[in-house]
Amino acid sequence: MIVETVRRFAGEPLDVRLHTALRVLSCPFGELLAEVPHGASLLDYGCGHGVLASLAAEHAAARVTGVDIDERKVAVARRTGPTDASFAVVEPGSVPPGPWDVITLVDVLYLLPRPAQRDLLLALAAELAPGGKLLVKEMHTCSPLKSRWMRAQERVMVDVLERTKGAQLTFTEPDHLLRAMADAGLSTTARAVDRWYPHPHHLVVGTRGAVPC
Ligand SMILES: C[S@@+](CC[C@H](N)C(=O)[O-])C[C@H]1O[C@@H](n2cnc3c(N)ncnc32)[C@H](O)[C@@H]1O
């Protein structure tokens, strides 16, 4: 994944090349890709530069759409992503209509206040196809050491470098996510996906029930 990502972003400015290379090294994208069925329609909400969307198109032949509030990142995703992928700027909270087989939401919720987190999960769940999956990857605060490292890094990204758009940091524990996604009508599972990573990644998978025959 690292080689293909470095190649994909090779024509971009140095800061984007560094950011995307570090991203693919530090985020367990493989765990997410393993959840994407071959040929699925996939919405990557808060896609950033489109690293995951492009990997999903390559590894799972997914038909991808990526959206983000940051027009600079969306412009990079458009330049570097697969030709049949589409990338668009969205207003906060607005969700492209489904039905989507898979929706990915990777390290976005922590940038939103709690009520907006809940509203976004409800809005995304409503656009899933029957049997579709909402994959939410966030970072928890249960591990004190990993948690301190993560907070320091995110403050630099949001406040100092301004590389990530977001007003505040509201890290979300797995239990809170599980409740919110169950309230959105999804059946859920959660697991830690941080082995060998310095960040405390966790993944919650919410599946919308199939329509009864
Ligand atoms: C840490 S980055 C993660 C990007 C990408 N998901 C990834 O894993 O590489 C967080 C992204 O969420 C986007 N974002 C923040 N608030 C958002 C919102 N309300 N709606 C959509 N995207 C948002 C930011 O612009 C940024 O690109």
What would you say this structure looks like, in words?
The protein is of the alpha/beta class and 213 residues long. The chain has one domain: Rossmann fold (3-Layer(aba) Sandwich). 39% of the residues lie in helices and 23% in strands. It has eight helices and seven strands. The protein has helices at 2-8, 14-26, 29-33, 51-60, 71-80, 114-125, 144-160, 174-183, and strands at residues 41-45, 63-68, 86-89, 100-106, 128-139, 186-192, 201-208. A seven-stranded mixed sheet has the order 3-2-1-4-5-7-6, with helices on both faces. A hairpin with an 8-residue loop joins strand 6 (186-192) and strand 7 (201-208). It starts with a helix and ends in a 5-residue tail after the last strand.
Please render the helix and strand layout as text.
Blueprint: H1 2-8, H2 14-26, H3 29-33, E1 41-45, H4 51-60, E2 63-68, H5 71-80, E3 86-89, E4 100-106, H6 114-125, E5 128-139, H7 144-160, H8 174-183, E6 186-192, E7 201-208
Parallel strand pairs: 1-2, 1-4, 2-3, 4-5
Antiparallel strand pairs: 5-7, 6-7
S-adenosylmethionine is lined by residues 23, 27, 46-48, 51-52, 68-70, 73, 92, 106-108, 111-112, 164-166.
* CATH fold topology: Rossmann fold
> Which ranges are low-confidence, i.e. pLDDT below 50, for 5 or more consecutive residues?
none
Classify the beta-strand content into a percent band.
Answer: 15-25%
Total beta-strand segments: 7
Counting helices, strands and paired strands, the structural category is alpha/beta
